[in-house]
Amino acid sequence: MKTFKILTLLAVVVILSAFAVKSIGAKGINGGGYGIGDVADDIKLMNVDGTMVSFSDYKDAKGFIVIFTCNTCPFSIANEDRIIALDVKYKNTGYPVIAINPNNPESKPGDSYEAMKVRAREKKFTFPYLFDEGQKVYPVYGATKTPHVYLLQKTEKGNVVKYIGAIDDNSRNANGVKVRYLENAVDALLSGQEIEITETKAIGCSIKV
Questions:
Q1: C-alpha–C-alpha distance, residues 151 and 153, integer Å
Q2: Alpha carbons 189 and 15: distance in angstroms, whole number
Q3: SS3 at position 101
């Protein structure tokens, strides 16, 4: 009887372990939230110019380069010029940058909406810089860092997640970049090819709650 109970318990553990591994695998190395192939919900967030921005506003877009970033993280600051360059390079091909600040300004006053407006003006941001008020959007995506990238492709099903992770392989030093993960992913979509690397580990500061 005791042996039967032990075997039953072991069987349950094995089943639960397999389920856990499957669940983790489905979401990849970036944890919870959206995984590759998921359809991302539309957003409606305040831009630094006072307007509300949604994916649905972009009728001619082929997809979106969604980047969770902020004013204060050294990694985000190191990537600002790269983010501007990405928007300039790809928005006319149908993949505009949508930047979202996920940080709680009560924890990080430098990431307040007013501070965002100042930073966008100083850096001459060419893209929307949206405030995730109440921190409702970033948990849905599963973003954990700033910067953290989600490349979406517009399809009949909706905006499908095609790449998640880092902009490139050197978050601190633009001159040291050897592999441009995000650019390679966008170029693959534009040429109708498969993306070779669909997930990388986002390197940056933790999102402040």
A1: 7
A2: 38
A3: strand
Q: Which residue type occupies 6?
A: I
Mean pLDDT of the chain: 89
The CA-atom distances, in angstroms, between 140 and each of 15, 34, 113, 179 are 27, 7, 21, 28
Query: In whole angstroms, what is the distance from residue 124 CA to residue 120 CA?
Result: 6
Sort strands 129-131 and 97-101 into parallel, antiparallel or unpaired.
parallel
| Amino acid of residue 2 | K
At residue 60, what are phi and psi to the nearest 5 degrees?
-100, 5
Nearest to 153 by CA among 42, 65, 33: 65
Looking up tokens 């993949």 gives 95
Q: Tens digit of pLDDT for each residue in 30-76?
A: 558 999 999 999 999 999 999 999 999 999 999 999 999 999 999 99
Percent of the chain whose predicted confidence (pLDDT) is above 90: 85
